[in-house]
Prior knowledge:
Oligomer: single chain
Number of strands: 18
Amino acid sequence: MSMKKIIPCLDIKMGRVVKGTNFVNLRDAGDPVEFAAYYDRSGADELVFLDITASVEGRKCMVEVARRTAKAVSIPFIVGGGLSSVEDISEILSAGADKASLNTAAFNNPALVREAAQRFGSPSIVVAIDAKKNEEGFFEVYTHGGLRATGKDAVLWAKEAAALGAGEILVTSMDRDGVKNGYDIELTAAIAQSVDIPVIASGGVGSMEHIYEGLTAGRAAGALAASVFHFQEFSVAEVKDYLLERGVAVRPFIPAFPRLQFGRDRLIPAIAQDAESKTVLMMAWMNEEALKLTLETGYAHYFSRARARIWKKGETSGHVQKVREVFHDCDADTLLLIVEQSGAACHEGSFSCFTYPLRPGTGE
């Protein structure tokens, strides 16, 4: 059984997170990177950034936001809005995004989906579909931020996108967007049944039950929500507990170190300082397991990037570090270990690794 994903969505306008109703009446909700970092440490499985006015205003997608986010989070994230060429997609993926979402550009130029999938791989390409039911009774595709009706059946377009090589479909019900009446189960299920790639449900979450319905009755592989998370009506962790209690397979949230900002490689720098002399001894890396072992045993454990494994300081030399205290800095992205150093801390035999002076003002 594949794990279902819980995905906060960050709608971006002019570099800020916004939220509205039925794609209009937008209000400012905050800084996107701050939101991203919060969701990363709160148990989200993935994030979606949508520059919702990029196609209308003819602007490129927010590459700088992607770069900043890549440094702040460890979970995958999708970026969409204003991507109209392979070069645009390459730029956003190079900035750190894991997936590129195509909406208006994909509909206007379906060959772009095929070309992008061939170049970057289907898993990196998401086709987003905004749709609402028309007077003729079918779900009609809208483009340009929901402003232009196309006359195209959303289910048929989803099948075409999958055949072109899209790795995922993000379907948003415009009728339900922001009104908190729940996903459009009819729309979501129709698309999920018509394609053999994952479908993300979007538009209308007002309760945890709505997410449950989207993942079960709607047959979605992932549930996307925005305002209920942004304004803390309930948390990602609460949703996951709710779903697990009802038998839905999701990755459980285990808040081992909820404040710490582990990097995209899931590592955090750790500085060791001698408790008696106050000498700064060394800098190494820790992952969560190394930090747990350090706290549990009272002796410093680090993660070796070269050997790709955890090691105990002094395991071969005997120069162990008995840990008195562990602190993190104000940004929660660096650790400080106060230790009792036995012997040399440096592999070159010095008490401290920091024995090579640079002379300010001399260029030396």
